[in-house]
Write a structure and sequence with these properties.
3-stranded antiparallel beta sheet, rod-shaped, binds zinc ion
Length: 63
């Protein structure tokens, strides 16, 4: 759902993505709420992978 939401640069309201990228409240420009390189999914999967690696080590590389 998050990728269909954009935030209005002018009034700060979250609006549904539309082709004009225009806020239907104030006519301002809609922008992506997240910076292009930021991905919460990737961030969590990175930590999850670290966690699994540690668990793997504990199970298979004891001592
Ligand atoms: Zn607006």
């Amino acid at each position: 759902m998050t990728k269909y939401l954009q935030i209005c640069k002018d009034c700060g309201e979250y609006r549904l993505f539309n082709q004009e990228s225009k806020c239907n409240l104030c006519g301002g420009t809609l922008i992506n709420p997240f910076p292009p390189k930021y991905s919460p999914i990737d961030k969590y999967s990175k930590y999850r992978m670290m966690y699994f690696k540690e668990e793997f080590k504990k199970k298979f590389e004891t001592n």
